[in-house]
Specification:
The chain has 114 residues and is an alpha+beta fold. The protein has one domain. 19% of the residues lie in helices and 33% in strands. A five-stranded antiparallel β-sheet has the order 1-2-3-4-5, with helices on one face. Strand 2 and strand 3 form a beta hairpin. The longest helix has 13 residues.
Length: 114
């Protein structure tokens, strides 16, 4: 259901996630890896004070490469910095008429807890 993600620090997919990148996505899918498309990090700084080692949560989102030019299929992995606590998928996201925040909201609404 969910493909493994590339290691942190790998290059991002260049260009739009439409037909021009579909060949790259298919190659990565065959190889069993995807490049990270988006990484969202949330840090907790108690009482607004910057702390050296804040509590951190991450969401890593990638395009599966199985959508169309206007509708994308995305997968996400949610972690607390140490372990994965959820995964999500969002098929048919209208990428040209919605924002990245709409994608994140859709993925958060589809989390399969672990």
């Amino acid at each position: 259901m969910f493909g493994p993600l590339a290691h942190e620090g790998s290059p991002l997919n260049a260009g739009p996630c439409g037909p021009s990148s579909k060949g790259r996505a298919e190659h990565l899918k065959k190889e069993g890896q995807f490049t990270n498309m988006l990484k969202i990090t949330i840090e907790l700084h108690p009482h607004g004070r910057i702390v050296e080692n804040p509590k951190v949560w991450n969401a890593t989102i990638h395009n599966t490469g199985t959508g169309t030019e206007t509708r994308g299929n995305y997968e996400a992995v949610f972690s607390n910095g140490r372990s994965v606590w959820g995964r999500a998928h969002f098929n048919g996201f209208a990428r040209k008429s919605n924002s990245v925040w709409a994608l994140l909201k859709g993925l958060l609404n589809n989390i399969d807890g672990q």
